[in-house]
Amino acid sequence: MEKKVFARTKGLTEVPMRYCPGCGHGVIHRLVGEAMVELGIKERTIGVAPVGCSVFADEYFNCDMIQPAHGRGPAVATGMKRVRPDCIVFSYQGDGDLASIGMAETIHSAARGENITIIFVNNAIFGMTGGQMAPTTLPGMRSTTSPFGRDTKVAGNPIRICELLSALQGPAYLERVAVNTPANVVKAKKAVKKAFQTQIDGLGFSLVEILSQCPTDWAMTPLQSIARIKDEMIPYYPLGLFKSPEEKK
Amino acid sequence: MGEKDLMKGNEALAEGAVRAGCRFFSGYPITPQNEIPEYMSWRLPEVGGTFIQAESEVAAINMLFGASACGTRVMTSSSGPGISLKQEGISYTASAELPIFYANIVRGGPGLGNIAPSQGDYFQATRGGGHGDYRVFVIAPNSVSEMGNFPRICYEISEKYRMVTMVLADGLLGQMMEPIEFDFEPIDPTKLPPKNYTLGKQDGRERRVVRSYDLKPGFMEEHVWKLMAKYNQVETHEVRYETSLIEDAELLIVAYGTSSRISKAAMVLARKENLKIGWLRPITLWPFPSTILNQLVSRIKKILVVEMSAGQMIEDVKLAIEGKAQVFFHGRPAGGIPTEFEVLDVIKKIYGK
């Protein structure tokens, strides 16, 4: 007897993904899709796709989707959730989208405590546009606009989003996870589900920062890039819980 | 209806929007339109609507993008610098074919400019304002009554054609007080027909996507031609204008908004001196009343364009008349406001007096 132990989640469409081999987006999309199905919210979820490699997320998530301007996801999500509080609204964003051009929308939606969920994929680079420096690019890290390595004297230090937002009263749930090991993937899924549950329970703003690898723009092989998560990313962006929804209950 | 009220222009505009079914407003403070968000902050909760003071005009237009995608009648307002900030969102909204309504209460520009009334944003309004091939329905009130009654027209057009609509007013219209009687009964937005493109609970239907892009070769071009076909319909069916004393006119003043009222007063003064002056007031600026203008210049050979700008609508006048008449211009940019006596002097100079 054959037993099916794994299948593509109904939270994702059948459209083949365009992400590079080794990219974290594929896994992270799957976690979000599975969470929507397991929590029974898929039919009332609206997702916001960013501008970036995951601009195409509007083709991959099997729910109503909207694709607005770069960085504006949290504002769009705010508008949608305010007029449709019965829907679950999430904004899926990269680090250029969320921490660079969209920083004001990120901070203010968090400060207002909007009852939305943000899935923040941090791969310390601008992926789609070919590998420019992002606000999250590590000190000394090479990119196409920091060809000699990020010089903190002129570019400053990278921004830690979970730490930054945890200074605000608005957020109900903030956690940083990674998808570089199977154990971390399991933890990341738990965090994604917890974030959606925070919204379902009406407790307020939730954000999961997910450290991810970009083999192509890091100029590494997939395995090398996964090793970099452990060796360089996690030491700068420590994994862990920053705000617990239990505090809001 | 049947009830006359004395209202400030900005407040009439806000009340007109709410009365027409607006249930979401997001905006940011900027003079001379602050009365609009302030009014909305208490009026919308009265009707179960949502008011948000956004962190910027950029955030505000994007909140509208989301709320409109979910089927709500939305509004934002701003002036000069804030309207410039919104242009990216407006381009996205036009491409995604979402209905929205916004208002520009124009102040002196460019740059931070000043807070005096102006008409210097005509190009920005009528040429879309943002990037790419698209058009925005632009309607220009010239009274508090029209400030209150035009939002309903904008919502109807925005939903009929799935496009961005706007009121182009100025600081004078926004700040002045006049009697107003609404010409329509309050609209209950919950009774409006449902839209087949909005997002929310699927309830058994296929999932929907709102997007403004298509990278597949040829698809974006096809999309733009589809938009243009829609805009052609608007140009055919939705032009609005007003005329006065054109039957025997030798010189036609063309002016909109506040300039139109000043010019009409100048026309009355000129007629007292037996000068055969007529008046055409474009009410929709896009679509521009090109057809009527083109017809009139087969008989009227002198046009005087009066604008509170360095000359923007004059270009549309010249395009419309195809060189068949002489065009004169009187402009006062960046907060200058002409008087009817000033315009009368200009008319007399044209007559060589």
Structural description of this entry:
- The complex is a heterodimer of chains A (249) and B (353).
- Chain A contains 10 helices and 7 strands.
- Chain A is of the alpha/beta class and 249 residues long.
- Chain A has a single domain (25-248), classed as Rossmann fold.
- In chain A, strand 1, helix 2 (57-60) and strand 2 form a beta-alpha-beta unit.
- Chain A is globular.
- With 353 residues, chain B is an alpha/beta fold.
- Chain B is built from 12 helices and 15 strands.
- In chain B, the strands form 3 sheets. Chain B has a 7-stranded mixed β-sheet with strand order 3-2-4-5-7-6-13, with helices on both faces. Chain B has a 5-stranded mixed β-sheet with strand order 10-12-11-14-15, sandwiched between helices. Chain B has a two-stranded antiparallel sheet with strand order 1-8.
- In chain B, strand 11, helix 9 (257-272) and strand 12 form a beta-alpha-beta unit.
- The longest helix of chain B is centred in the middle third of the chain and has 19 residues, at 219-237.
- Classes of the chains: A alpha/beta (249), B alpha/beta (353).
- Chain A binds chain B through residues 43-44, 46, 48-49, 55, 58-59, 62-69, 72, 75-80, 82-84, 86-87, 104-105, 107-108, and chain B through 23-24, 26, 50, 52, 54-56, 58-60, 62-72, 74, 88-89, 92, 199-203, 207-213.
- Strand 2 (64-66) of chain A pairs parallel with strand 9 of chain B.
